[in-house]
Amino acid sequence: MVNTLYLPEIREMLAANDREELREFCTALHPARTAEFMEGLSATEAWEVLLAAELSTRVEIFSHFEEHFQQEILESQDRDEIAELITELAPDDRVDALADVEAAIVDELLVKIPAEERRDILRLSQYPDGTAGANMTTDFAKLGESLTVKEALDEIGKQAEDLEMIYYLYIVDDDNHLRGLVSARQLVTAMRQPNTCLRDLMKTDLVTVKALDDQEEVADTVAKLNVIAIPVVDDEHHMLGIITHDDVIDVMQEEAVKDAHQSAAVNPLEDSYLRTHLFTLSWKRGIWLSILFFCGLLTVLVLQRYQTNLEQWTWLIPFIPLVISSGGNSGNQSATLIITALGQGHISLSDWASVVWRELLMGLVLGFFLALFGMLVSLWIAPNFNGIWVIPLTLILVVISGTLTGSILPLVFKRMGLDPAIMSNPFVAGIVDILGICIYMTVALLILEPVAG
User: Fold this and answer.
1) pLDDT at site 208
2) Neighbour-count burial for 333-344, b at 16+ CB within 10 Å, e otherwise
3) What would the pLDDT profile of 287-336 be if each residue is shown by its tens digit?
4) Is the pLDDT of residue 149 over 70?
5) Percent of the chain with pLDDT over 90
6) For residue 443, what are the contacts with CB-CB under 8 A and spacing of at least 6?
7) pLDDT of residue 184
8) 301 membership: H or E segment, kind and range
9) pTM of whole model > 0.70?
10) What is the pLDDT of residue 283?
11) CA dihedral 303, 308, 311, 313 (to 10 degrees)
């Protein structure tokens, strides 16, 4: 939702070219809040506001704009001014900002960016999206292992202004191999012995990630270790960069949105909801709706097979939605639990037997629980004593079928190399619906047909 609180005032300041007021507006609040109040401005208006501020403030506010708005600004404003901005952005933010900009414009901008930053942009942009390399920053504190504490403090004093995070100080050898880590706290504490070598002070048992590791696995590792940052290395253990906690939060938010879409049988959106083209949105939703439609069609065909029996026992018809939903709900519960456990690393494919056994027991417990309610309803609805048992027995069997299907399918899809989150729930719903009807009518035939005969 666009925040229009300050838009008239901002436009008045722009019209009057009141640079002092614009500068005060840019510095009065946290950069994130300032960016929020600028929503609704055109790219040109927003850029004019930013030009009134110091370059460092301009960079901070710009980094909080939505990606599509950043893209509009980069593509439409003066190339020299934009190149100056990009140069000052954090390395990972630079790559993200340029990712969707037209290639011709990127080429124009790169020529105007200093050689060191240009090489850094080109290097980071080579890593595939969704990997550790694509999320890392190359701004980190790096010290030689032969430095003393006093020399290290002097070196950090020189580096600090240009670094994103200096709590962790990474120790490397002459060939840039990662050797260890010293925290800023350790370094300050060791000032009492200024001639101590970092080699004797550093921690060497570091957890690292590779540049091509999946970003979700990296985020899980950082969350599990409860660290502020994690180093990224290549196959030869050369130090490439770090992934900081703020990048991890972004990854977790991205993955959470992705999982939410997938759990509703929608292919994840690449842009925001309102900026996604209707055709694209229709395709992402329609492909799974079509699958669910054909699963529903199979349910209709199964029901048609039992049409004669349903005409004979019409009192069974109102319970069909109840039977189907009980199986589907229990199946989706199991699928969600297993998918989450797989994602968090709490279970693996080798645990399939334990998973199936637990879900079988769970199906029995939940099935008997629902059967008690089914029995009470049957006492009121069923036309004879035998008919009382149809609904309770069906509920037990259908819920067991749902929990088993919901637990097995994610494991099967994981084993096939497919994404369990996006594949499981639609198929669970379709399979359990068909199974539910078959079980319902089979139980009814076994119980009621001898009575009718």
Assistant:
1) 92
2) bbbbbbbbbbbe
3) 777 777 777 787 778 777 877 777 777 777 888 888 888 888 898 888 88
4) yes
5) 26
6) 390, 393, 394, 397
7) 85
8) helix 278-305
9) no
10) 76
11) -90
The residue extents of the domains of the chain are 7-131, 141-249, 278-452
- What does the alpha-carbon distance between residue 433 and residue 269 come to, in Å, rounded to a whole number? 28
Q: Are 326 and 398 in contact (CB under 8 A)?
A: yes
- DSSP assignments along 210-250, one per residue: ETTSBHHHHHHHHHHHT-SEEEEE-TT-BEEEEEEHHHHHH
Superfamily holding 7-131: MgtE N-terminal domain-like (1.25.60.10)
Q: Do 432 and 328 form a contact (C-beta atoms < 8 A)?
A: yes
For 278-452, CATH number out of 3.40.50.11260, 1.10.357.20, 3.40.50.1820, 1.10.10.10 equals 1.10.357.20
Rounded Cα gap, residues 195 and 147, in angstroms: 9
Q: Tell me the per-residue pLDDT of 248-266, one tens digit each, with 9 for 90 and over.
A: 887 777 766 666 666 666 6
Q: Which of 42-56, 86-100, 273-287, 343-357 has the highest mean pLDDT?
A: 42-56
pLDDT score of 29:
87
Residues 262 and 252 sit within 8 Å (Cβ to Cβ): no
From CA 427, how far away is CA 299, in angstroms rounded?
13
SS3 assignment, position 432: helix
Residue with tokens 């292992």: 145
Write down the CATH superfamily of domain 141-249: CBS-domain (3.10.580.10)
